[in-house]
Specification:
globular, 11 strands, Jelly Rolls, 2 domains, about 230 residues, DNA-binding, Arc Repressor Mutant, subunit A, alpha+beta, homodimer, about 40% helix
Amino acid sequence: MSLACASCPVRDSAACSVLSDEERGALSKAGRTRTLKRGELLFAAGDEQTACATLVTGALKVCAHDREGHEQILSLVHPSGFIGEMFAPFAHHDVVALTDSQLCTFARVDMERAIEDYPALARALLRRSQEDLHSARTLIELTAHGTAEARLAALLYDFSRAASKSPCHPASHFELPLTRGELANMAGLTIETVSRKLGELEKSGTIRRIGKRGIELIDPAHLQALSGSAEA
Amino acid sequence: MSLACASCPVRDSAACSVLSDEERGALSKAGRTRTLKRGELLFAAGDEQTACATLVTGALKVCAHDREGHEQILSLVHPSGFIGEMFAPFAHHDVVALTDSQLCTFARVDMERAIEDYPALARALLRRSQEDLHSARTLIELTAHGTAEARLAALLYDFSRAASKSPCHPASHFELPLTRGELANMAGLTIETVSRKLGELEKSGTIRRIGKRGIELIDPAHLQALSGSAEA
DNA sequence: CGGTTCTTTGAAGGTGATCAATAGAGGTGG
DNA sequence: CCACCTCTATTGATCACCTTCAAAGAACCG
């Protein structure tokens, strides 16, 4: 294997985990590892020769830009996530590293062939795509309604669950992969409002800020209540 | 064939269009047609025995509800669209008919079997799922930023393109499948603001309202300019 | 025609955006 | 090691926009 699949941290969770060792070995020959530093661009909107990739370590954001250059974050990608618009003639969005990251990249033609050769891979990608769809809809739910406080609470609660290993219980401490500006962007607010509301959440004893990026959940139930979410 | 595939209006565009006639015939034996009247529920959030469906005629909305009962529209489904969370243990969202609709429904187990038996179907659903993902992200882009006018303009422009047969040029006249309240919901605004802004768009000569649901685009370029979108 | 629902229009108030300045963190080079 | 610079975050004051509350008008259906 040209890629270090044997020691890959996402070998049991990425899309390729459904392949047998031989199949995975064959696919890995077509792939290339790549490392990105924080802020580096993986794919650019408009690229015609788009590739796909599985994120191994780090974090990415998928974002659009309006014609005035304002950025809108559409999705975050965590390890074992798959990125790539395999059926579009060109990439619609930029993909940027939020932190230093490692990936497996594949040329589009190779991935197309792999999907035809390995039906299980197509099913795995279908499953992943539907999960991405669900995440996108969750983000719609967060940003469409409610006050600034509710949106921020919902976003933080969502992140705390993403950071947790158990799917239901939120992590009590986590590091935001985002700057304040990116947080504001996702919540549809301004930096200043986010800063103020975080301060209020801290004063009310709901969270505690640790350094610039760290968040400790002191009262997760209250955070969830503020978010107005319908989850149990 | 138990379903009228031969005369189905979406036989060349739905996911099942990738199947051969015999394959489609076999699948259709497992499916059932269903008609819904405006407002009827197809799937309810929390349903454990979820099914899937292809929309043949009409229009659907996918929506979530927060604990106070407020609805949030997450997606619209047009004919040939596929609905169903095939990998989730239960449905996350309600699916409701916006107008009288016809569908082909399939039990989950039958669709799972079909995906395994017909790899081309899995690929078709993957493609469709990625398109749905792109639509969801477009909606995020619409609702996250900009003024009320920009959001409404973007939404209307999006609908006009969906109503058009040619993928790029907007339809000059179309019927909204949504009430004012649903429009407001999708744009993240109130009914009153939508009503006011529609009035302003009409006074400025950008659109014309025809009856309660009809919209005529008088100045599509201006509408697009107001939307702040990055499209060419 | 009366009832219900949806839409339009009006006036007041609040929430978050904007503008502006300060403070802190991280990095580089002297 | 510290000075310096840049980038990010916090805090404050003002204002505009949208929401909220309220009522009247229009469409639909019995």
